Amino acid sequence: MTAPIYAVGDIHGHLDMLDAAIQRITDDGGPEAQIVFLGDLVDRGPDSAGVIERLRAGVAAGRNWTVLRGNHDRMYSYFLEEHPRPDPQILLGMDWFSDRIGGRSTLASYGIETGDDTRYFHIHARARAVIPQAHVRFMAGLPGHHLAQGLLFVHAGIRPGVALERQTEDDMCWIRREFLDYRDPHPWLVVHGHTPGQRAAHRGNRVNLDSGAGYGRPLTAAVFEDDRVWTLGARGREPLLPETQD
Hints:
The strands form 2 sheets. Strands 3-2-1-9-10-11 form a 6-stranded mixed sheet, with helices on one face. Helix 2 packs across helix 6. The chain has 8 helices and 11 strands. Helices cover 29% and strands 17% of the residues. The protein has a single domain (5-187, 195-239), classed as Purple Acid Phosphatase, chain A, domain 2 (4-Layer Sandwich). The protein is α/β, with parallel strands linked by helices. It has helices at residues 15-29, 48-60, 71-79, 103-108, 120-130, 133-140, 169-174, 177-180, and strands at residues 5-8, 34-37, 65-67, 145-148, 151-154, 189-192, 201-202, 206-208, 221-225, 228-233, 236-239.
């Protein structure tokens, strides 16, 4: 019997939900529980700065935590570089500050307000002056995937049929249809977020834990142990069984 691995879906700035998920995991598996956070720490929710600090401090303190990079985390890091750059995967006409993306709320969590008359170069300089370098370094150093016990944890997914060492960060942060529509087994059970649903879903070859916290729905934590999967709620473990894909 192997020790369980816990995973937490897309957080999107909801520190209260994150703390509740960590507490449920601690109640189930103890303070040394291994947890993988699937990325998208920031944007849309009210306290992205608090989420980053909670996870950064936990990793620094030696908690058995792995924090992955999501597409929103990558946009955060790209903006805070010396010369800000857009993510090449983003839709034309959109950027980190678009309402659908949520970068304004992330900056607001640091006390940086933006208005319709705010210039890009002004807000970039202010953000680089205000946001702690510890946050910048932590976010820039997040890995793209984590492999353990026959499970591949990744933010968005992988390109089917491509060896793990040849997967690109673009795909691991952004891929959707080519991954979501693939029905055959992968070399691992892929645990991912990125594509929000009404609830967590087990699709046989993959498990999606993005239950829409970025849109105000509950954050999902899950348990993986001995080839079984559970979600972890207020009443403890509830089985997450494979569903037939449409």
